[in-house]
Specification:
single chain, alpha+beta, four-stranded mixed sheet, 5 helices, 12 strands, flat
Length: 261
Amino acid sequence: HMFWRYTEDGHPAAEGVENPSHADAIEQQYIRNDEIVGRVRERLSDGDVLWVMSDHGCTSFRRGVNLNAWLLEHGYLHLKDGADGSEKWLQSVDWSRTRAYAVGLVGIFLNITGREAHGIVAAGEEAEQLKTELKEHLDGLRDGDEIAINELFDTDQLYRGPYKGNAPDLLVGYNHGYRISWDCASGVVAGAVFDDNRKAWSGDHIVDPRLVPGIFLANHPIDREDPAIIDLAPTALRLFGVTPPPHMEGRPVVTMDRFGG
């Protein structure tokens, strides 16, 4: 996150920094990690299982997107009379007229009746229509000549289970170089829709997941050509002889009889 700015030319967060002492920090960390994996492999016995995995990759964070500013400009979010939108945590928002908002790092929430304290969007057809409308406007959103947002994802089509209620209504798939802005993450509405990211936190993964796949390395064959992260937890449980709970998504990526199970 912090050292990405030194891996590419022209990153706004590296402006004015001359000859940084740790410009190769990411590369050196990979080298150390590789050495650790090598030492572990030397100690493995027959039948031992070794996984090296990450839940995501990383990419550049050069420009921030203030979704609340965009929602305000397009009439989906409204401010209280006399407010300028500069307060954090959506304190300036007039909830009686606001249909959608963004806070945190994950995406866009609808102001749903009965779910939010002052919701005005009816669950069901009205909410679905609003999601479709936002998706039509924000898919392919441009920042000048660059595409900032590749696609919005409807979480009703992605998730199920007892924790689905913690998800936003729409996940935002940002393009390389873009992420939700620092202001928007803290519930600020004011400001431009796009701005440069000049913070040391210059690389991130809160983007279109297709752009930042994680790695999965195993010292044994797997039975899936394209394993997903949701497959790995049930695989691990099965390897330990534990039956995954019914709500857990994914399926094992190995044949259990390969390990005597």
